[in-house]
Amino acid sequence: MRYVLCFFIILSNLDLAGQALRDINYSFEFDPTEPFTFRIKAVRSEAGWVCHYEMALDDTTQRAEQYILQWDLRTSLDEKQGTAVDAGAIEKNVLKDVVRGTIKLPSSATLQYLTVKILNNFVKRVWVFYKDLPPNYPANGYMIVKDNVVQQSYAKIGNPVTLKGIGEGNIVSFYDDDFPAAVPAFSEGMGRVSRSMKTDSTYSISANTPISFSEKGLYLVQKDTNSAAGYAFRIEDDYPRLAKVESLADPLVYICTKQEFARVKEAKGDKKDFDKVILSITGSQERARDFIRNYYKRVEWANTYFTSYKEGWKTDRGMIYILFGLPDELYRFSDREIWNYKNDDVKVTFTFVKSRTLFDPENYVLIREKKFQETWYEKVDLWRSARF
User: Residue 7 — pLDDT band, cuts 50, 70, 90?
Assistant: First the structure.
């Protein structure tokens, strides 16, 4: 995925004046049981920033008008209060179950943090999100589908999209690479992407004209191919929820032996052969059903939250999320994320270092260590016996 989006809940106290951003537990950002999803897509240009935001309700018992959004700018994660964003810079459209709009900000030579408090007095809760705005941020474009800004880093095959923000006469580079899945947290090697990826095709498109993409893969849109800025996204088919049997094989790489993985790949979409492998792993039909339901729900969430230049389940954060679930604590700093698990099944801490690229301005890489090996295999064994 992509942009940094931070999330915090207070159950009873609506006053966040004493909270510095670096002290907040952001684990709720990746919690699918929350009443809404909130995303910010930041676009940088010579004229300044345009930040598109969307709050979409998942809880049908609530209405978007019940939520109040308060925006400010901060210069440090240590700040407990920011400078209020001028009301004239904010555009907002409130519908029954969604709030959309833009925040327009001038350029800055230093790092800023756009912060929003979302309050709901009916349920006495507050959420805080922030988006970091570095002066060298490479993203300068975005997609629109059916008049709405696409907030995630992917779109569907065949769906008409309109590319915005980059300029006239854009160049599209297509990459058909089968990017590797993340390797285990204890691995000494890493499935790195080549520094010079081969472009499979390049072509020009007109700005503000709907276009449909017919091939799965990674796309990069730029004014010219020598530019240090652009906008990358994936085009997917069976995504983010995997529904086709042939799509289910690859994510099993995290819990299968080499022999099992070879067998599930050989099934080539045949459901009976695929089910036989799952049954041989879990040992019973009941456990096999539980495994399928829960494992691929995690894969779907990983795709939703972490899609990047490669599929969300293949990323380092996606891998940890699938195997270990939602962290009990998630802390963010300018250069890293800390995920703490403190439950009855596992006690472990993972650190992800930010490694910003043109293809993913919010790329995070797991710091791998040998000490994770025992915990890793214990977690894999729990999955294989459908005890999660």
Answer: very low
